[in-house]
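#onboarding

Welcome to the new folks! Below is a worked example of what a typical request in this channel looks like: someone posts a single protein sequence, and someone else replies with the predicted structure as tokens. Don't worry about understanding the tokens yet, we'll cover that in week two.

Example request:
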Amino acid sequence: MRIFLDANILFSAAKTDGAMRKLLPLLRAAGHELWADGYVLEEARRNLHAKAPDGLPALEAIVAEIRVSEAHPGDENPGSAARLLPEKDRPVLAAAVRLRCEALVTGDRSHFGAWYGKTLEGVAIHSPRSLAEALL
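Example response:
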């Protein structure tokens, strides 16, 4: 399965050697493809630089193990359901759709929480816990 990683997932995995950092290699070992794009990667880098700069080397190690595509600004032409997302989150879903990911994992409960367990534009929206429970 192709799984798109939101910026907060990358941030959490890089910030500490906790559950999120352990989840990513487990998903890869189970044969899943982990994806991100330049948009979420830049957000993760920016937030780490501001809040936890010691995590930047860990982020680069994570990036070396996943697939990363270029950001496509202006490519967030979501369908009607995705228009309910805040504008800043539309590029995240658009990238997951463009990269043909079956799932998007995000810890952003405030913007994506209502969509956990649902599918938007063909992409199942998961919290880290629901993804782990479904796939591992």
